[in-house]
Structure formats: structure tokens, C-alpha cells
């Protein structure tokens, strides 16, 4: 996995904090200075800067940034500067609170993070909102979608690589029958997707492909009339089997068509910059024959654009 973030090996948290303070002073905020510092610091370094800023000025850097910046740029910087578990808790809360819950975000967090990271997000959510992530998911969704999301979000999967081939075959058959019968809300389907390790699930998905000559995701969306539950199952399977492909498509959908989905674009860039954004960029180029930097630059503007391009690893 290759990150796109370009961060120095050494930095002085105190100097960074002082430079940020200077960027807030005067007539207008110096956004370029903020981007050049925060856009080149990894998770640990950003935490050090927040602590140094607090010690020097008895002020919360995150709150200060919120008051100095605005719009999509403010949102992106805010999400970037948080610890990853806390950031995912915020993203989950925003997704849950939408008029129609954005279940993709809940699925990404549940199916892509490691079991330990998912646990950390649930703790951070609890701490921030004084409610559990699962109770909020349950309160804002209903029916079969609720069953699936609550099962995914409360999962604590085995994280090792051992797999059981016999189990892979029998569970590939269960999934196959459910798809054939259009019984997408089958409890066995939800049990399999929410309890098995990723390695075991990938073995089942591969088994399915071997037996049917086509991927489970293709067959799942084979109908002309695709319901929300099918789409959610499809997203979960893609997040488990190939997160990078899933994110490439999320970014592509965010910037194509009329108007950009800034929320989705920011989410992918901010959450993947320190993980595998370089790989996602390569995939994007293969699929679209245009670089992601170029596509993002075309669809965004101002400080927001400059910040995203910095996280994408574009050299000034």
C-alpha cells in the first residue's frame, strides 16, 4: 500500500504551531501557509502540532481553524487534522444525519478498517456523541438495511489469513442461492458478510466466481430493478474484496457528471492519503486515461483545490 502524502522525516511542532499562529494573524488568514504546513504532516506530526499549539497559546487549534476557514476547504482541513478514529466517527455521524443516511460511509468504515481500527472508531464515536455508533445507525435506518448496517458496524472479525476451503464452498453456495432467489435479506447472507474474516470472505467470493464464471458483484446487480439493500450488499462486498477499486469508483463518481460531490471527494482523499491513495491514483489513471490530480484540479477551485492536490502528493 502506497500513501500519496509527502511529509518530512523531521519537523518542529513548536515552529509549525508558531507559523500557523502567524497565518491566523493580520488582515486575512494566510491559507497558503496553512496548506504548506498541514498538507505535509502525517498523523503523528499533526497530533504534535495540535499539542504544541495548545501549550503555546492555550487555544484549541481545531477550533481556531474552524473559525478562520470556510466552505469545503474548512471541512477538508478539519477532517484532515483529526486523529483517524475521531475523523471516521465524525464522517459516520455526518453520514447518519443526512436526510437519507449515506450508508456507503458506514459500510466503508465497517468493511475496510481492521477490527481494531473499527473498535477505535466506535470508542471515538461514543466519546464524542455520548451515544453508540450502532444505536445511531439503528435509529436512522430501518428494515433490512438496518439489519445489515448494525451487523457490520458491531462486527469484530478475525483478522488473520487462515481460511477454510470447505466453508468457502458452502458459503459461496448460500450466497449463490440467495442471489438466484432474490432473497437478499436472507439472514445467512448478513451473517456471512458481517462475521467472517476478510480472507475467508474473499475465498468465498473467489469460489463463487470459479463456479459461476462471473463475479458475485456482477450477479448481485443483475436485475434491472436494483433495491437499496442490493446496492448496500454490493458496496460491502466491494469494500471487503478490493477497497482500492471501490475508492477509485467513488472518486470517479464524485467528479463526473453535473456538479462535484465534494463530500465524497474530500472523504476519499483525506482518509486514504496516508494509506493507499497512490495506488488509487494509479488505478484511476488506468481506468480514465487522465491523472486524478488533473481531474480534481478541473473540478475544484481555490484553497480547497490546492489542499486536495497537496494531499494527492502533487509537488508545487
TrEMBL record:
Keywords in alphabetical order: Annexin, Calcium, Calcium/phospholipid-binding, Metal-binding, Repeat
Species in which this protein is naturally found: Carya illinoinensis (Pecan)
Name under which the protein is recorded: Annexin
Pfam families linked: Annexin (PF00191)
Single GO BP term: response to heat
Chain sites annotated for binding Ca(2+) 2: 255, 297
Similarity field: Belongs to the annexin family.
Listed SUPFAM superfamilies: Annexin
Gene Ontology CC, one term: cytoplasm
GO molecular function, one term: calcium ion binding
Entry's free-text remark on domains: A pair of annexin repeats may form one binding site for calcium and phospholipid.
The organism's place on the tree of life at top rank: Eukaryota
Residues given in the record as Ca(2+) 1 binding sites: 24, 26, 28, 68, 259, 299-300
